[in-house]
Design brief:
Distance between the termini: 43 Å
CATH superfamily of the largest domain: Regulatory protein AraC
CATH architecture of the largest domain: Sandwich
Shape: globular
Number of strands: 13
Strand order of the largest sheet: 1-2-4-5-12-7-10-13
Radius of gyration: 21 Å
Number of helices: 12
Helix content: 40-55%
Oligomer: single chain
Order of helices and strands: EEHEEEEHEEEEEEHEHHHHHHHHH
Length: 325
């Protein structure tokens, strides 16, 4: 079977360690390697390879506060995301790819571009696209949600489906910095890895010529990033305004100012968790309400029931019975 190793990597003395998941076809029968890889690493796309019998691949996956990082080494493969798949999973992420070896091609929305080593390709995963590589390759890929991309990098609509060819000094600096960051990840704590990832995104913004003229993070940007973090870490019971402020590197005052037009940071976290529990109560019929509550970062059953009633006009149990009728 495919081997998937997950474990803490880093120095415990510096706090919580970053987790790197390694996926590989190394121990898989040759005739089944591509089938397993397609199931494990490419479940949201159609994939093909010119030589199934010789296919090999490995990937290191790191989940960070603002996005995901993937380091993939693989035989030649062609990936297509269809309209049916887009409708089915409603994914709203952006993929930023840097090929370190071998040429490839990206196509989206009628635009098609060759991608060479050191180029930066950007794909909107909420729309159909086609990616291909002509031989064995290594790719570093960053996955961001749309709101994080818009806040940190620039407007996606003007960049989706485009290839930014290598050549500018800043782009070369970004590619080199990204490689150094990936190489150093196994020695980093979670805090260090997230700080480093913010630096990667900052350099990417400048490499693509999307520098913000005000030179400072605006209130709307703070709110966008905070909301993205809330969605990613709903399950984390430790997530609170202080944790968000530390992760974004902004003061408590700046964070609360960013949410001045809403019910507040804590209320935004609670409402997001309540919305998630409501969706799961409706769809995960075999899971108990208590399991769903804990999975969404809530621990006080009485408070949860009261807050759910206040937001939706009925208790969680009443809502589930409504769905059963």
């Amino acid at each position: 079977m495919l081997r998937q190793r997950a474990g803490p990597i880093g120095l415990p003395a510096r706090g919580a360690t970053i987790h790197i998941i390694t996926q590989t076809t190394e121990d898989t029968d040759a005739e089944r390697a591509f089938e397993y890889w397609r199931y494990l690493a490419m479940p949201m796309v159609d994939a093909s390879t010119p030589d199934i019998a010789a296919f090999t691949a490995s990937r290191q996956f790191t989940a960070l506060d603002l996005g995901d990082l993937l380091d993939t080494r693989s035989s030649a493969v062609c990936i297509e995301r269809t309209r049916a798949q887009v409708r089915q999973d409603d994914l709203d992420n952006v993929a930023i790819s840097v090929f370190l070896s071998r040429d490839g091609r990206i196509a989206q929305g009628g635009d098609s571009a060759a991608v060479g080593p050191g180029d930066i390709g950007i794909v909107d995963m909420s729309r159909p696209f086609l990616n291909s590589c002509s031989g064995e390759y290594r790719e570093l890929r960053i996955h961001l949600t749309r709101d994080v991309f818009n806040a940190q990098i620039g407007k996606l609509d003007s960049m989706a489906g485009r290839n930014f060819a290598a050549g500018s000094p800043l782009q070369a600096l970004f590619v080199g910095h990204l490689q150094a960051y990936v190489a150093g990840l196994p020695e980093m704590s979670a805090v260090e890895a997230n700080i480093g990832f913010e630096g990667v995104l900052h350099l990417l913004q400048h490499a693509l010529g999307r520098h913000r003229p005000d030179g400072d993070i605006r209130a709307r940007t703070v709110r966008d990033l905070a909301e993205a973090m809330i969605r990613r870490r709903l399950h984390d019971q430790a997530l609170d305004p202080n944790e968000i402020g530390k992760a974004l590197g902004v003061s408590r005052t700046r964070l609360y100012e960013a949410f001045a037009e809403t019910e507040g940071v804590a209320a935004t976290i609670l409402n997001a968790r309540l919305d998630a529990t409501r969706r799961q109560i409706q769809t995960a019929r075999t899971r108990s309400i208590g399991e769903i509550m804990f999975a969404c970062g809530l621990t006080d059953a009485t408070m949860f029931s009261r807050a759910f009633r206040r937001r939706f006009g009925m208790t969680p149990s009443e809502f589930r019975k409504l769905g059963d009728s």
